[in-house]
Predict the structure.
Amino acid sequence: MQPATLTILGSGSALPTWQNSPSGQILTIGDKSFMIDCGEGIQLTMRQMGIKTARLYSIFISHLHGDHCFGLLGLLTTLDMMGRTQPMHIYAHADLEKLLRPMLKYHLQDMKYEVIFHAVHPRKREVIFSDHTVTVETIPLKHKVPCCGFLFYEHHRQIDPVTGVMSYPMHKRYAYCSDTMYKENNIPQLEGVDLLFHEATFTQQWESRCKLTMHSTTHQAATMAQKAKVGQLMIGHYSSREDDHNVFLEEAKEVFPNTILAVERQQYEF
């Protein structure tokens, strides 16, 4: 069984900095690559890393703040220029299609491939994608606008040689918790995942801003990981107030030692 691979394209928050672009990741499970959020500048990072856009299977957008979706139009344009013919499936809040369709119609009048939107309901946990190898569920989050995370889990078809009964045992599980306040009732859904990405926008000294901006601190992200008994925690979505990301890491490790930083242009196997 091949390891799952997570590539960090952007790990900053709303304001880009010299070291951080807005949010974006690619999760590769088996022969499928899924993009998770698509902030401004993401495709430049992809080209710098030599990532083949042709491998993108579908795109999942957590919410419609610009630092999570402003890179979409440019990416879809590039895919058309590079001759993509297979449909691109985008899973997001229904408003994304209302916003993006007119721009696609204006800028890409002769698109060679179809963009198919799938509306998700951020406040409800539900399966939004499933095939014979991967299933994706929404994780309801608490933010200023409707927002959800995504739980990806891998499964493989097995047939019992004696009974002939077919089963789909799970293997790797990855949970992505984008912009959100601390939300303890998500713990059962996150329990035991191999890798949890949880935003940790603020260090502890800025905890008072969490209620205003509806984000999480390092300790809050680490507490989620600890209570959910995850294999490993990855933190990101760093506030531009902090230049030294090691401060985020040190604080999170005080609560959950098996924590790592989301570092841009890095790939992680799990």
Summary: The chain has a mean pLDDT of 94.
